């Protein structure tokens, strides 16, 4: 058996014989009705009739087809995955939108550099968010958007808020680390490969003791230059051992949101950001944590 990790979240366990390169998470993503409805609501809210749209990341073509169906004049869309590109080309043709949707097997940087688009688009859409926001190339997509957008371009999503809370959960922490020895056998070198940024988990499947309220820990837009490092303040409401932070995002889609909030049952996992070493926290004390550009967290200070 092999565990297939791809860019978005964990994808499942499949027999080795079935291992394949296709990003299989696209099935669950396309079946995520909350996500799809929010995208449609954003398109209706902004209105795209006769507008020029740029989509970064075509996937199977669903969202480009939504834009075309809602009256866009032209939809430029690029997909860097070759298999998905071919899938989307066929889907676009099958839905008779090949005159409106111009699809390219390119990255967004390549498309922008190519000069194919002569003018800034009226609307830029991208849904390239992994569970912890930045893992699917957020910073390079943001740079591309800043290169091509004009001050009148509507960007969907326009803001992505990230929330998080401290937890005690040896079970989650141990998804990424081994501790102790195995009947005298030392295996700690595997910890050289532990994830230091964040990794996807289904929060509700684990034993967890929450240690703080859920707070807004970060805010992203595609047009703000560098976000740098942010600090977040958590006040512990229980005494315990903090293994890290659970985070989830809400990306605004017009009047609606797409989200991996643990109260919703969507296709995204939640993100767990482990501390390098667990820390003892005391109810009532304040903990300042740094949220780094790559999504890793570090404890900065504790105040009683
Ligand atoms: C999460 S899917 C969304 C697909 C489709 N827009 C939808 O919402 O159904 C994102 C897709 O974007 C592609 N992608 C990510 N970054 C890209 C980039 N910079 N340029 C082109 N494609 C990109 C990925 O390969 C993936 O297929």
From TrEMBL:
EC numbers on record: 2.1.1.-
TM spans (from-to): none
EC class of the enzyme, as a word: transferase
GO molecular function: histone methyltransferase activity; protein-arginine N-methyltransferase activity
Keywords: Methyltransferase, Ribonucleoprotein, Ribosomal protein, Transferase
One biological process term in Gene Ontology: methylation
Domain of life, per lineage: Bacteria
Keyword Methyltransferase among UniProt keywords: yes
GO CC term (a single one): ribosome
The name this protein goes by in its record: Ribosomal protein L11 methyltransferase
Gene (UniProt): prmA_1
